[in-house]
């Protein structure tokens, strides 16, 4: 399912216009994004949790030249699936 399919499903299920459903979905994702940027953890019961993981810098190797390069540290969003969803998917 992609974002536009989610918007259509929401509109149909909740009897909303496509525009209203699009506003709801965009607001939801925007607020999640803002929360993660602030460093907050997001937990959606029955689905899972989102958080930002900090990865330290390290020495890597350019696979083409073999030259050692310094890879900068970075922060990346991380999703951990919840137990309930894991069990539902596993029982399909």
- Proportion of residues in β-strands: 25-35%
According to CATH, the homologous superfamily of the largest domain is IHF-like DNA-binding proteins
Top CATH class of the largest domain = Few Secondary Structures
The fold-level CATH name of the largest domain is HU Protein, Chain A
CATH architecture of the largest domain: Irregular
> Strand order of the main beta sheet, please?
1-2-5
Q: What structural category arises from helix and sheet content?
A: alpha+beta
Provide the number of structural domains.
2
This entry's quaternary arrangement is single chain
Succession of helices and strands = HHEEEEEH
Largest sheet: 3 strands, antiparallel
Question: What do the pLDDT scores average to?
Answer: 96
Amino- and carboxy-terminal Cα gap: 18 Å
Number of helices: 3
Shape: elongated
Which key terms come to mind for this protein?
92 residues; alpha+beta; HU Protein, Chain A; 2 domains
Structural notes for this entry:
This protein has 92 residues and is α+β, with helices and mostly antiparallel strands. The protein has 2 domains: 1-38; 41-92, Irregular (HU Protein, Chain A), CATH 4.10.520. The chain has helices at residues 3-14, 18-37, 83-90; strands spanning 42-44, 48-55, 58-61, 68-71, 74-81. Strands 1-2-5 form a 3-stranded antiparallel sheet. A two-stranded antiparallel sheet has the order 3-4. Strand 1 and strand 2 (48-55) form a beta hairpin. The model has no long low-confidence stretch (mean pLDDT 96).
């Amino acid at each position: 399912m992609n974002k536009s399919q989610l918007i259509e499903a929401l509109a149909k299920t909740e009897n909303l216009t496509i525009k209203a459903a699009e506003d709801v979905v965009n607001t939801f994702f925007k607020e999640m994004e803002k929360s993660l940027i602030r460093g907050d953890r997001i937990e959606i019961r029955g689905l899972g949790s989102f958080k930002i993981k900090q990865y330290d810098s390290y020495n890597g190797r350019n696979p083409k030249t073999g030259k050692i390069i310094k890879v900068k540290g970075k922060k990346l969003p991380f999703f951990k699936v919840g137990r309930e969803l894991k069990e539902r998917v596993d029982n399909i």
